Amino acid sequence: MPSHWTLAYAQLRRCVPQIFRPGTCLYVGASRDKFANSARELIKAGRVVTILEIWEPNCEFYRQQPTIARVHRGDVRDVAQYDLPHFDLCMWFHGPEHIPVADLPATLVALEAQADLVVLACPFGVTVQREEEMRGNPWQKHLAGLLPEDFQRLGYQIDTFGKEADWNACNLLAWKKSK
């Protein structure tokens, strides 16, 4: 069986192939454990990546990486308050499950104002968090189990693979052009 990342790349290439072109990208939530898997193809395609990350140790790690243009420490729910430029793409790959579902609509509206295309992914449904913290990161805890309708009602197109709530073998992809 192919890995989760192999399946996720295939899903991204099928649903939103335009993300694999040069341009600017606001990448939200750059965990050291997952960012390398989800962003390497964006960088390889010529995306100039700015990271928005809430946990300082991750920020410090990415400030040392020559492939990252800029690192901004902050909470995605406050993105409208930051002095960030407009981006071609906002990528929030496996992040929406880390905020309360009640915060999702306003957060997505703010991201849509920040980028021409918003692409996000999360587990499909409620998944049991194997670790509430990774490397001591208190922001890793899952606070929402999201379903296709959570994004569709906000105007997003969606695609899923795997069985709902199957931790490593499922994915919910959502995307929306804001322009």
Our count of domains comes out at 1
How many strand elements? 7
Number of separate helices: 5
- Element string (H = helix, E = strand): HEHEHEEHEHEE
How big is the Rg? 15 Å
**What spatial form do the alpha-carbon principal axes imply?**
globular
Distance between the termini: 38 Å
CATH homologous superfamily title = Vaccinia Virus protein VP39
Question: Approximately what portion of the residues adopt beta-strand conformation?
Answer: 25-35%
Per the CATH scheme, the topology name is Rossmann fold
Proper CATH architecture: 3-Layer(aba) Sandwich
Please identify the structural class as seen in this structure: alpha/beta
Tell me the quaternary state. single chain
The strands making up the biggest β-sheet line up spatially as 3-2-1-4-5-7-6
Question: Helical amount among residues, as a percent range?
Answer: 25-40%
Major β-sheet annotation: 7 strands, mixed
CATH hierarchy, class:
Alpha Beta
Secondary-structure topology with pairs:
Elements: H1 4-15, E1 23-28, H2 35-44, E2 47-53, H3 56-63, E3 68-73, E4 87-93, H4 104-114, E5 115-122, H5 148-152, E6 157-161, E7 171-177
Parallel strand pairs: 1-2, 1-4, 2-3, 4-5
Antiparallel strand pairs: 5-7, 6-7
